[in-house]
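Example A, followed by Example B.
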Amino acid sequence: MAHPQSPDARPFAERRWTAPDGLRLFARDYAPGCGVARTPIIAIHGLTRNSADFEAVAPLLAQSGRRVLAVDVRGRGLSDRAPDPMTYRPDIYAQDALALMDQAGIARAVFVGTSMGGLITMALTAMRPRAVVAAVLNDIGPEVAPEGLARIAAYSGQPVEIGSWADAAAYARRINTVAFPHYGDADWAAFARRIFRELPDGRIALDYDPDIAVPIQAAGAKALVPDLWPMFRRMTRKRPTLLVRGGTSDLLSADIAARMRKAASNMVYVEVPGVGHAPMLDEPEARAAIFEFLAEVD
């Protein structure tokens, strides 16, 4: 079926599953290509985004013989909005992902996590270590630069008035041009279609629940500098890990990336030049690194 935001059909099926607390959640389910079946991939987006972030790379990964499930985390995209905003936190998101695995009959998966998706990956690895065969962390680590997280927190959940798709593209450019300075008008128009939805009454709105920001606001300054180093070390000790960093990222600084590489000497690393937080993973450098990495994973 076609996603409501997409002007044409996409190569995925719509999958629904039920969270432990009863929310109905959504994922794009890309069937694997021909050949020997390989460990499936679960792709998890960042804080204010949704499964559309993987629409360029997911079909390519599926063609390589892996089923790909790109999820809409609760409160985003086609997943239900949570009645309790305090459930918008990584440990709950991780439980949701494990519920997807259980209901889809997936015992083990490769996880691709962008930003918050990487934090979710670390959390669910701690909850169910055998579920994670390998991990791709996209511009995220066990520590983040406070200036980058403060920038994201400044616009997350804030109301925005959008009167047209041109307005939506202008908004997308305004908050993301620091990450993609090379994008042109067509890129921002496509970007807007990923992060906004058209409502039944014709209004255009951001495709997430503004209340996702409530737990961050409640935690205050403590939320800006999480320390997940022990969790990161446990995750990378026994499983293949690839770290993708945007060359100009303000969330995953060069210093943090260097310390991650020192703490996990077997971790594969690639930097995407000229891109900030976070790479879309369709950049040539990111795409080549991911396929080379996955070639060594069953």
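Example B, a separate protein, is given below in the same form.
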Amino acid sequence: MSELRYIRLGFGAESVEYQEAWQEQRRVHAARFADEIPDTCLLLEHPPVYTAGRRTADSERPLDGTPVVDVDRGGRITWHGPGQLVGYPILKLPRPVDVVAHVRRLEEALIRTAAEFGLETSRVEGRSGVWVLGDPLAERPAVGGLSLDLDPRVADEEFDPRLNGPEYAPSNAGQRREDRKLAAIGIRVAKGVTMHGFSFNVNPDNTWFDRIVPCGIRDAGVTSLAYELGRDITVEEVVPVVERHLRDVLDHAEPKPREIERIERESERASA
């Protein structure tokens, strides 16, 4: 990879509207594809906005008709807003592209960032992003007075957590001692260059997530660095730490083309 540069687009009162940032991503993406600029990471905050990836289901969107921006990244629906650090690494990857390896590198940088602030995080198999792991099932409080093995969020296909109050709200996953997502990742790779990226919950109002099914996950929730550590932390404090760890991870990574298994045909083997 080329040397990584950072562009801080705007935070706080200068937060950047989602559509404006998306247009800037496209401009930077085109320049990176043409080798006019080095690998670039845009860092910013957004005003409150819901964005939906290509796999988002109607049953995961806000029930009250709140507007949602449909985007061309992977993943499902999420929220961006004040108190959340958003990063859009626009990087040229070797072909054939290994998307999973790229996601793992982003996760690693954010795991290291959380650790520097004193919070242990992890990955969850089959679920991208950075997670605070919950207690074992047997040690968690019952949800809605029910045994967890009868949790309607996973046992009842018609159950809708958006309609069932704080007992099932994603923002209360910490109180329920469930797995909860600290950072979400959703990307797109076009012409070998990445777009979109990560959102890291520093100190947002996580009740925004209660109006949707975040990332399409019903049996876990969301959290923030400030909530888990029990103290106030600002996005401004986190930005330089994320920059340092992302640069370190990418500088020491050796991105290689995804290996493609080549299977010989029977006729080819027979004629050898």
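On Example B: The radius of gyration is 20 Å.
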